[in-house]
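step=encode ok
step=design start
structure_in=
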């Protein structure tokens, strides 16, 4: 699944500026399908302006391609909508998006000369209950499609406007907080039981937000627990459940990039769909990108690996508590550097769950991409936060149930700058130095030189070149954040 996450440092050839606009995102969807081999494009109406004529524009601009590849059968467009429980001001955008689905159907029907639903699934972010999923599902049936049976005077809307299709949609819950991820079966089960047996259900697990809120180790363990529960629920209810996982390119957000695709596929083998975010697509050579996507498509979904959830939960509790304490300690640095992280999309992002759930302490942070970008720019890979809470038995457990853990550390630690020590919480610096020695890590000196400049200029309030320097460092890493 190609996504619009703004984690790329380099811009693709079809974008003329440093920001994607809505027309660029039309081109991007075609490019992801036709040139990269992605099978699905997430169309994001959550936190940003989205083109509501996307289907019409794709079919008219790239007619020859979509005559061969049917939108809704061969390649897919899936909309992420706002969740009005969290984003009350964006609630009407949810309704507007649902109302647009029959319009897209009509466009495709004319184009293909047959009944085809180019959009039939929506992603609901920050899902915490079955009621939220059911509400979207019911609204579409009762108020979008259902209005065709209503009449104005003696004329039914169906006769006046035409039929409303598709008659139903699939709602994909996106779970982003610890409680929801760990209780995924209880959230999804009532939706699966509604209106009889479903043919299948897709379930979206976040990785970046849990990593920012609880640390990347917690994000991995939570997702492993959830994936095992999904397998058990699928077997119990005799329904095919297809997990989606929201990886990014930076180790903290999944380490899912062309170089590490194989590791992720082995680590999370029960996942059906992996997100290919912007850095994956644009910060690497295209041949490497297409080969990696071919590898993803050729890999068959397996069974979830078993995990000792009791031990995992104990480790999560201990590690996340220390991680959150350390994030609070360096929050000012994160927020200060965040102001200079270059934007890549015209977005108005919703509040991060860390800030949302912990606002009683006055902590507000940027979303995960900028969070990572700010810390890496200071020579503080976020992967190091909380490591001093782990003991040798914890490492043994992690190396056993989360084998990619060591690879993630090895990929992150070369960007550590020891001159960031004054910003670090007490006890962390020595832990990191020991881990660098133990894993025989070589520091990226070019990156260190740039982060030295960033730290010095930031400390002296010399801000003129910070955005340029943050970008230079990101080019070396091959990701923004």
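sequence_out=
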């Amino acid at each position: 699944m190609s996504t619009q996450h703004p984690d790329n440092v380099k811009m693709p050839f079809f974008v003329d500026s440093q920001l994607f606009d809505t027309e660029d995102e039309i081109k991007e969807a075609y490019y992801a399908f036709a040139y990269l081999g992605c099978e699905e494009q997430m169309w994001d109406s959550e936190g940003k302006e989205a083109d509501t004529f996307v289907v019409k524009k794709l079919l008219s601009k790239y007619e020859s391609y979509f005559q061969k590849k049917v939108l809704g059968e061969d390649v897919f467009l899936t909309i992420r909508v706002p969740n009005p429980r969290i984003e009350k001001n964006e609630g009407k955008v949810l309704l507007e998006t649902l109302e647009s689905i029959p319009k897209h159907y009509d466009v495709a029907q004319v184009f293909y000369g047959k009944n085809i639903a180019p959009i039939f699934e929506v992603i609901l972010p920050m899902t915490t209950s079955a009621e939220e999923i059911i509400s979207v599902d019911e609204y579409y049936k009762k108020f979008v499609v259902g209005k065709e049976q209503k009449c104005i005077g003696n004329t039914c809307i169906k006769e006046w406007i035409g039929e409303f299709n598709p008659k139903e949609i699939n709602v994909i819950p996106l779970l982003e907080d610890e409680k929801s991820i760990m209780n995924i079966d209880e959230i999804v089960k009532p939706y699966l039981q509604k209106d009889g047996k479903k043919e299948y259900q897709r379930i979206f697990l976040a990785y970046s937000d849990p990593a920012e809120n609880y640390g990347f180790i917690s994000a991995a363990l939570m997702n492993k627990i959830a994936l095992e529960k999904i397998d058990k629920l699928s077997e119990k209810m005799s329904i095919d459940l297809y997990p989606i996982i929201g990886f990014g390119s930076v180790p903290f957000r999944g380490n899912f990039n062309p170089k590490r695709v194989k590791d992720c596929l082995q680590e999370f083998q029960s996942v059906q769909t992996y997100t290919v975010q912007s850095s994956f697509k644009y910060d690497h050579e295209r041949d490497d990108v297409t080969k990696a996507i071919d590898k993803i498509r050729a890999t068959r979904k397996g069974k979830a690996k078993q995990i000792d959830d009791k031990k995992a939960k104990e480790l999560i509790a201990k590690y996340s508590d220390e991680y959150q304490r350390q994030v609070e300690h360096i929050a000012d640095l994160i927020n200060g550097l965040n102001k200079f992280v270059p934007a890549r999309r015209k977005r108005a992002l919703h509040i991060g769950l860390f800030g949302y759930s912990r606002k009683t302490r006055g902590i507000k942070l940027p979303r995960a991409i900028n969070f990572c970008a700010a810390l890496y720019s200071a020579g503080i890979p976020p992967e190091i936060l909380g490591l001093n809470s782990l003991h040798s038995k914890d490492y043994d457990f992690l190396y056993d149930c989360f084998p990619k853990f060591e690879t993630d550390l090895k990929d992150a630690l070369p960007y550590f700058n020891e001159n960031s020590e004054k910003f670090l919480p007490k006890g962390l610096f020595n832990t990191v130095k020991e881990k660098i020695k133990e894993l025989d890590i070589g520091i990226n000196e070019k990156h260190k030189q740039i982060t030295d400049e960033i730290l010095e200029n930031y400390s002296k309030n010399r801000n003129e070149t910070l955005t340029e320097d943050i970008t230079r460092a990101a080019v070396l890493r091959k990701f923004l954040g």
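step=design ok
step=annotate ok -> The chain is about 50% helix and 10% strand.
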